[in-house]
Amino acid sequence: MSFRKDMLRYGTLVILAVIFIAGLSVIIITAEIKYDGECMVSAVVEWKSSKGSSVNIYVLNTSSASCSFIMGYHGLAVAVCFVFFIYFILLLRKVVVYPRALPWFALLCIIAAVFSLVCVMVLYIGLSNLCDGFLERYEGYTTCEAFESSYHYDRKGFTGLFKGAQIASWLSCVFWAVMALMLFAQRKSFRIRRSLRVENSIQT
What we know:
Elements: H1 2-32, E1 34-35, E2 38-39, E3 44-49, E4 55-60, H2 65-92, H3 102-137, H4 144-150, H5 158-203
Antiparallel strand pairs: 1-2, 3-4
Helix pairs in contact: 1-2, 1-5, 2-3, 3-5
């Protein structure tokens, strides 16, 4: 029982480390998704011809709301993750014990997983809208990557940034969910041990 308990606790620390790194990655990558200094996550592309033969790309209706939401949420999630990490280190060192509020911690993890999934959807929709806008004029290109590699504009590599942020958000979502399951498992283990102690005390 002690070995299983320690494995759960050390496994929890590993999961929290992954969540922490994934959250920081989302913040760093999202901060780079910009066009002329503006957030591209919810940008709308409009093509306009100039007086010459050249064509200018205008990214209109850029808004910082999406980037602020993604970065703000993951910043908060990283902070919560850090607090959890410190708590479980103290738990391993037997400085603290399991609180009765452990199921509420698990609920917090579930909420974090849901918000991480929302971030994934925001990034996915944002990339889809940008790709549709860019490829609308040049039907010869089938992917944003192909368009990026052949057309010259200020923000090359945005598809890689979007996809990198999506992957990191997916990792955050999955591991927050796993963290919730781990907390429920540890709560169950704690209740079993407490019941055994009560039974032993009654017998003696």
